[in-house]
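Reviewers of the previous submission asked for a worked example of the structure-prediction workflow described in the proposal, so we include one complete record here. The input consisted solely of the amino acid sequence. No template or homolog information was supplied to the procedure at any stage.
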Amino acid sequence: MLFGKQHNEILELEKSNPKKFCTKILKNKNNRNYADIMYFSDQHIGSIFCDFSLVKKQRDRCLKEHIYVKLGGDLIEGSTRFSVGAGIYEQNLTPHEQLFALISFLKPLADADLLISVCMGNHDERFKKAVGIDIISIISYILKVPYLGFGGFNYLKIGNQNYISYLEHGNGSSKVLSSKMKKVIDASKNIDNFDVFAWGHTHELFAWKDYRQNYNKKNKSIELIEKQYLLTGSYLNYDFSYANASSLPPARLGSPILRFYGNQHKVEVLEPR
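From that input alone, the workflow returned the following C-alpha coordinates.
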Protein backbone atom coordinates (compact mmCIF):
# COMPACT_ATOMS: atom_id res chain seq x y z
CA MET A 1 0.00 0.00 0.00
CA LEU A 2 2.81 2.38 0.88
CA PHE A 3 4.54 1.77 -2.44
CA GLY A 4 1.27 2.35 -4.29
CA LYS A 5 0.73 5.63 -2.47
CA GLN A 6 4.29 6.75 -3.21
CA HIS A 7 3.83 5.79 -6.85
CA ASN A 8 0.72 7.96 -7.09
CA GLU A 9 2.58 10.85 -5.49
CA ILE A 10 5.41 10.47 -7.99
CA LEU A 11 2.94 10.50 -10.87
CA GLU A 12 1.40 13.66 -9.42
CA LEU A 13 4.84 15.29 -9.13
CA GLU A 14 5.58 14.47 -12.76
CA LYS A 15 2.77 16.83 -13.74
CA SER A 16 5.08 19.67 -12.71
CA ASN A 17 7.88 18.52 -15.04
CA PRO A 18 8.69 21.00 -17.83
CA LYS A 19 6.55 20.97 -20.98
CA LYS A 20 6.96 22.88 -24.22
CA PHE A 21 3.29 23.63 -24.80
CA CYS A 22 0.11 24.37 -22.89
CA THR A 23 -3.38 25.67 -23.70
CA LYS A 24 -5.24 28.43 -21.88
CA ILE A 25 -8.82 29.53 -22.48
CA LEU A 26 -8.99 33.24 -21.70
CA LYS A 27 -12.30 34.25 -20.20
CA ASN A 28 -14.13 37.39 -21.30
CA LYS A 29 -14.55 39.32 -18.07
CA ASN A 30 -17.57 41.64 -17.88
CA ASN A 31 -18.54 40.79 -21.48
CA ARG A 32 -15.34 42.30 -22.88
CA ASN A 33 -14.30 41.09 -26.34
CA TYR A 34 -10.65 40.90 -25.34
CA ALA A 35 -8.25 39.61 -22.69
CA ASP A 36 -5.07 41.28 -21.42
CA ILE A 37 -1.82 39.49 -20.58
CA MET A 38 1.17 40.78 -18.62
CA TYR A 39 4.55 39.25 -19.50
CA PHE A 40 5.89 39.39 -15.93
CA SER A 41 9.61 38.67 -15.73
CA ASP A 42 12.89 39.34 -13.91
CA GLN A 43 11.47 40.44 -10.55
CA HIS A 44 14.57 39.17 -8.68
CA ILE A 45 12.67 38.94 -5.39
CA GLY A 46 15.21 38.88 -2.54
CA SER A 47 17.70 41.22 -4.19
CA ILE A 48 18.41 44.47 -2.35
CA PHE A 49 17.93 46.17 -5.73
CA CYS A 50 14.43 44.71 -6.32
CA ASP A 51 11.72 47.39 -6.39
CA PHE A 52 9.28 45.15 -4.56
CA SER A 53 6.71 47.90 -4.11
CA LEU A 54 6.43 48.10 -7.90
CA VAL A 55 6.35 44.30 -8.21
CA LYS A 56 3.48 44.17 -5.73
CA LYS A 57 1.70 47.05 -7.47
CA GLN A 58 1.81 45.11 -10.74
CA ARG A 59 0.48 41.96 -9.07
CA ASP A 60 -2.36 43.89 -7.44
CA ARG A 61 -3.20 45.60 -10.73
CA CYS A 62 -3.53 42.21 -12.43
CA LEU A 63 -5.92 41.07 -9.71
CA LYS A 64 -7.99 44.25 -9.87
CA GLU A 65 -8.17 44.53 -13.68
CA HIS A 66 -8.31 40.77 -14.44
CA ILE A 67 -5.01 40.74 -16.35
CA TYR A 68 -3.60 37.29 -17.09
CA VAL A 69 0.07 36.65 -16.30
CA LYS A 70 2.89 34.78 -17.99
CA LEU A 71 5.94 34.41 -15.75
CA GLY A 72 9.25 34.75 -17.58
CA GLY A 73 11.89 33.59 -15.12
CA ASP A 74 14.41 35.16 -12.72
CA LEU A 75 11.52 35.42 -10.30
CA ILE A 76 13.97 35.38 -7.38
CA GLU A 77 17.57 36.52 -6.94
CA GLY A 78 18.73 33.06 -5.90
CA SER A 79 22.37 33.83 -5.09
CA THR A 80 24.16 31.02 -3.29
CA ARG A 81 27.72 30.56 -2.07
CA PHE A 82 28.47 29.06 -5.48
CA SER A 83 27.33 32.19 -7.36
CA VAL A 84 29.90 34.47 -8.94
CA GLY A 85 30.37 38.03 -7.71
CA ALA A 86 28.97 39.66 -4.58
CA GLY A 87 25.34 38.62 -5.18
CA ILE A 88 25.14 36.51 -2.03
CA TYR A 89 25.78 39.66 0.02
CA GLU A 90 23.25 41.73 -1.94
CA GLN A 91 20.13 39.89 -0.75
CA ASN A 92 17.64 40.84 1.94
CA LEU A 93 16.14 37.34 2.05
CA THR A 94 17.84 33.95 2.16
CA PRO A 95 17.22 31.67 -0.84
CA HIS A 96 14.86 29.60 1.35
CA GLU A 97 12.91 32.74 2.30
CA GLN A 98 12.85 33.89 -1.32
CA LEU A 99 11.12 30.69 -2.43
CA PHE A 100 8.38 30.95 0.20
CA ALA A 101 7.97 34.69 -0.35
CA LEU A 102 7.50 34.04 -4.06
CA ILE A 103 4.89 31.31 -3.51
CA SER A 104 2.98 33.56 -1.09
CA PHE A 105 3.22 36.46 -3.55
CA LEU A 106 1.93 34.45 -6.53
CA LYS A 107 -0.82 32.53 -4.73
CA PRO A 108 -3.53 35.21 -5.16
CA LEU A 109 -2.91 35.18 -8.94
CA ALA A 110 -3.17 31.37 -8.97
CA ASP A 111 -6.35 31.45 -6.88
CA ALA A 112 -7.87 33.91 -9.38
CA ASP A 113 -6.92 31.58 -12.29
CA LEU A 114 -4.76 34.33 -13.82
CA LEU A 115 -1.47 32.43 -14.11
CA ILE A 116 -1.00 31.06 -17.63
CA SER A 117 2.48 29.55 -17.36
CA VAL A 118 5.91 29.91 -15.77
CA CYS A 119 9.41 29.37 -17.14
CA MET A 120 12.84 29.21 -15.53
CA GLY A 121 15.52 31.88 -15.61
CA ASN A 122 19.23 31.58 -14.94
CA HIS A 123 18.82 32.93 -11.38
CA ASP A 124 16.09 30.39 -10.62
CA GLU A 125 18.38 27.70 -12.02
CA ARG A 126 21.05 28.46 -9.41
CA PHE A 127 19.21 26.24 -6.90
CA LYS A 128 19.30 23.38 -9.37
CA LYS A 129 22.99 23.83 -10.07
CA ALA A 130 23.86 24.14 -6.38
CA VAL A 131 21.73 21.41 -4.78
CA GLY A 132 19.67 19.76 -7.54
CA ILE A 133 16.38 21.43 -6.57
CA ASP A 134 14.18 22.84 -9.34
CA ILE A 135 12.30 25.61 -7.56
CA ILE A 136 10.15 26.43 -10.60
CA SER A 137 8.92 22.83 -10.59
CA ILE A 138 7.99 23.30 -6.92
CA ILE A 139 6.10 26.50 -7.72
CA SER A 140 4.38 24.76 -10.64
CA TYR A 141 3.31 21.88 -8.39
CA ILE A 142 2.05 24.00 -5.50
CA LEU A 143 0.26 26.66 -7.58
CA LYS A 144 -0.94 24.30 -10.36
CA VAL A 145 0.58 26.44 -13.12
CA PRO A 146 2.11 24.86 -16.28
CA TYR A 147 5.92 24.84 -16.30
CA LEU A 148 7.53 25.53 -19.69
CA GLY A 149 11.21 24.95 -18.85
CA PHE A 150 13.41 27.77 -20.14
CA GLY A 151 10.69 28.68 -22.63
CA GLY A 152 7.68 27.34 -24.48
CA PHE A 153 4.40 27.88 -26.27
CA ASN A 154 0.98 28.95 -25.06
CA TYR A 155 -2.02 28.24 -27.26
CA LEU A 156 -4.47 30.96 -26.26
CA LYS A 157 -8.18 30.84 -27.01
CA ILE A 158 -10.50 33.81 -26.62
CA GLY A 159 -13.87 34.24 -28.30
CA ASN A 160 -13.57 32.85 -31.81
CA GLN A 161 -9.84 33.56 -32.06
CA ASN A 162 -6.75 31.44 -31.39
CA TYR A 163 -3.25 32.82 -30.72
CA ILE A 164 0.20 31.33 -30.27
CA SER A 165 2.42 33.10 -27.74
CA TYR A 166 6.02 32.03 -27.15
CA LEU A 167 7.94 33.15 -24.05
CA GLU A 168 11.57 32.33 -23.33
CA HIS A 169 13.74 33.64 -20.52
CA GLY A 170 16.62 34.28 -22.91
CA ASN A 171 20.32 34.83 -22.44
CA GLY A 172 23.19 37.15 -23.27
CA SER A 173 23.57 40.87 -22.81
CA SER A 174 24.35 44.04 -24.73
CA LYS A 175 24.61 47.77 -24.13
CA VAL A 176 22.81 48.47 -27.41
CA LEU A 177 19.04 48.04 -27.86
CA SER A 178 19.36 47.09 -31.54
CA SER A 179 21.69 44.20 -30.59
CA LYS A 180 19.14 42.92 -28.08
CA MET A 181 16.40 43.16 -30.73
CA LYS A 182 18.55 41.26 -33.25
CA LYS A 183 19.16 38.48 -30.72
CA VAL A 184 15.41 38.09 -30.20
CA ILE A 185 14.68 38.07 -33.93
CA ASP A 186 17.45 35.50 -34.52
CA ALA A 187 16.04 33.28 -31.74
CA SER A 188 12.53 33.55 -33.20
CA LYS A 189 13.76 31.97 -36.44
CA ASN A 190 13.74 28.65 -34.57
CA ILE A 191 9.95 29.02 -34.24
CA ASP A 192 7.82 28.43 -37.32
CA ASN A 193 4.51 29.88 -36.20
CA PHE A 194 3.71 32.49 -33.55
CA ASP A 195 1.78 35.69 -32.94
CA VAL A 196 3.94 36.87 -30.04
CA PHE A 197 7.61 36.14 -29.30
CA ALA A 198 8.74 37.37 -25.87
CA TRP A 199 12.25 37.35 -24.42
CA GLY A 200 13.40 38.18 -20.88
CA HIS A 201 16.83 38.37 -19.24
CA THR A 202 18.06 41.59 -20.88
CA HIS A 203 16.09 43.80 -18.42
CA GLU A 204 15.04 45.96 -21.36
CA LEU A 205 11.36 46.92 -21.70
CA PHE A 206 10.50 47.25 -25.37
CA ALA A 207 7.90 46.15 -27.93
CA TRP A 208 7.99 46.19 -31.72
CA LYS A 209 6.26 44.59 -34.69
CA ASP A 210 7.53 42.80 -37.76
CA TYR A 211 5.58 41.78 -40.86
CA ARG A 212 5.85 38.79 -43.20
CA GLN A 213 4.11 37.86 -46.39
CA ASN A 214 2.03 34.72 -46.58
CA TYR A 215 0.17 33.11 -49.47
CA ASN A 216 -3.44 32.37 -48.52
CA LYS A 217 -4.39 29.20 -50.43
CA LYS A 218 -8.08 29.57 -49.65
CA ASN A 219 -8.36 33.13 -50.96
CA LYS A 220 -5.49 32.76 -53.46
CA SER A 221 -4.01 36.02 -52.30
CA ILE A 222 -0.95 37.45 -50.58
CA GLU A 223 -1.60 38.59 -47.02
CA LEU A 224 0.53 40.44 -44.51
CA ILE A 225 1.15 38.54 -41.26
CA GLU A 226 1.91 40.59 -38.14
CA LYS A 227 4.47 39.35 -35.60
CA GLN A 228 4.74 40.95 -32.17
CA TYR A 229 8.10 40.96 -30.37
CA LEU A 230 8.72 41.80 -26.72
CA LEU A 231 11.62 42.44 -24.37
CA THR A 232 9.97 41.85 -21.02
CA GLY A 233 11.71 44.33 -18.69
CA SER A 234 12.75 43.92 -15.05
CA TYR A 235 12.28 45.28 -11.52
CA LEU A 236 15.88 45.95 -10.48
CA ASN A 237 16.84 49.48 -9.51
CA TYR A 238 19.95 50.72 -11.29
CA ASP A 239 22.14 52.64 -8.84
CA PHE A 240 25.07 50.57 -7.46
CA SER A 241 23.70 47.42 -9.15
CA TYR A 242 25.51 44.93 -11.39
CA ALA A 243 24.20 46.81 -14.45
CA ASN A 244 25.57 50.08 -13.07
CA ALA A 245 28.96 48.51 -12.29
CA SER A 246 29.08 46.95 -15.79
CA SER A 247 28.28 50.29 -17.49
CA LEU A 248 25.06 48.87 -18.93
CA PRO A 249 22.49 51.59 -19.65
CA PRO A 250 19.62 52.12 -17.17
CA ALA A 251 16.23 50.87 -18.33
CA ARG A 252 12.62 51.62 -17.48
CA LEU A 253 11.17 49.18 -14.94
CA GLY A 254 7.98 47.26 -15.62
CA SER A 255 6.41 44.63 -17.88
CA PRO A 256 4.70 44.56 -21.28
CA ILE A 257 0.92 44.16 -21.38
CA LEU A 258 -0.78 42.92 -24.54
CA ARG A 259 -4.45 42.85 -25.45
CA PHE A 260 -5.75 39.85 -27.40
CA TYR A 261 -9.09 40.37 -29.15
CA GLY A 262 -11.74 37.65 -29.34
CA ASN A 263 -13.75 38.96 -32.31
CA GLN A 264 -10.83 39.65 -34.67
CA HIS A 265 -7.25 38.41 -34.95
CA LYS A 266 -5.52 41.39 -33.40
CA VAL A 267 -2.84 41.90 -30.74
CA GLU A 268 -2.51 45.39 -29.29
CA VAL A 269 0.37 46.68 -27.15
CA LEU A 270 -0.99 48.49 -24.08
CA GLU A 271 2.40 48.87 -22.40
CA PRO A 272 5.11 49.98 -22.98
CA ARG A 273 3.98 53.04 -24.91
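Residues 37 and 68 are 4 Å apart (CA to CA). We consider this example representative of the routine output the project will generate in years two and three.
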